[in-house]
Automatic annotation (TrEMBL):
Keywords: ATP-binding, Kinase, Nucleotide-binding, Transferase. It comes from the Bacteria. GO terms for molecular function: ATP binding; kinase activity; methylglyoxal synthase activity. SUPFAM superfamilies: NAD kinase/diacylglycerol kinase-like (SSF111331). This is Diacylglycerol kinase family lipid kinase. Residues 1-131 form the DAGKc domain. It holds the Pfam family DAGK_cat. One of its GO terms (cellular component) is cytosol. The lineage of its organism: Bacteria, Bacillati, Bacillota, Bacilli, Lactobacillales. The keyword Kinase applies. One of its GO terms (biological process) is phospholipid biosynthetic process. It comes from Ruoffia tabacinasalis.
Length: 300
């Protein structure tokens, strides 16, 4: 059994991934571990290295990347007989997975924390055949995320997504969905639909109140079609209401499985999976309880 494989994605968010990979190797080896570094040039490399780590039974994968890279790594291990534990050094724009797990966002501190982290078993989601660790989304706001270019991400960070999201709220466009939620079917006209596996959405760590990464549930939020003022009010009330009382403008429910069909026949669109382009409709999403062990700070 080999020990630690460090996988660094230099194209994610912060560009110092290779430097931090070397720092991680040094601090791990100073604490009695043995680490190798692999630098990726594409998503295919993340898959290749992760599967190599699984098949050669590495103890740990340290991944430097954003939410999309972390979920790609998790998805690449779906069919492996053995899954190494993973440690996350967040170098993305939002880093929602890391925030939900209380992993340090400051990279200098995150690297120093590595020897003191402990494994926590977490759930994942499965959308069609793709694993995700954070969020599946669809609607005008998620579509706007794809308008954010790499330069804006580097310059503005999460604010770049916020700017595009506010502009998208002003659009008079919604979709009609058929939602089969744990075998109960209904239709909704929605501007936004979110399905998460933790409490955190785009860095808002209490978006789904009382949700956790190991509760065995999907957490669903829909923003219903209304006037612009009502849409803004509904989502603001939800974000800032610590009790998360459902109002008439939103749909919220927990589930094990959801099947989503787009009923607008003249529209071709797709879901976003942890900020990256995902499959087109229809989609089926389910929870994968205790999918993988992630190294996190002591939760006490």
């Amino acid at each position: 059994m080999k020990d630690v494989m460090i996988i660094a994605n230099p194209s994610s968010g912060q560009k110092q991934a290779e430097d931090y990979a070397q720092q991680a190797k040094e601090i791990l080896e100073a604490n009695g571990r043995f680490a190798t570094i692999n630098i990726t040039e594409s998503g295919d490399d993340v898959v290749k290295f992760a599967q190599e780590a699984a098949r050669e039974t590495y103890n740990t994968i340290v991944i430097l990347g954003g939410d999309g890279t972390v979920s790609l790594l998790a998805s690449s291990l779906k069919d492996e007989d053995y899954r190494p534990e993973i440690a996350i050094l967040p170098t993305g724009t939002v880093n929602n997975v890391a925030r939900a797990l209380n992993i340090e966002i400051n990279l200098d501190k995150a690297v120093k924390d590595l020897p003191n982290l402990t494994p926590q078993s977490i759930d994942a989601g499965l959308v069609n055949d793709q694993v995700f660790l954070s969020l599946v989304s669809t609607g005008t706001i998620p579509e706007s995320v794809f308008e954010v270019n790499e330069e804006e991400k580097e310059r503005l960070g999460p604010v770049a997504y916020l700017v595009e999201g506010i502009q998208a709220l002003n659009e008079q466009k919604s979709y009609r969905f058929s939602l089969n939620i744990d075998n109960k079917v209904d239709e909704f006209e929605l501007d936004l639909l979110l399905i998460g596996v933790s409490s955190s959405v785009v860095g808002l760590t209490n978006f789904f109140k009382d949700a956790s990464y190991n509760d065995g549930k999907l957490h669903i939020f829909g923003l219903k079609k209304t006037t612009l003022g009502d849409r803004v009010g509904s989502i603001a009330n939800w974000i800032f209401d610590t009790e998360k009382v459902q109002n008439n403008g939103v749909l919220t429910v927990d589930a094990k499985n959801i099947k989503i069909e787009l009923l607008n026949k003249d529209v071709s669109t797709h879901v976003a999976v942890d900020g990256d382009k995902g499959p087109s409709f229809p989609v089926e999403i389910s929870v994968l309880p205790n999918y993988i062990n992630v190294l996190t700070p002591d939760q006490k």
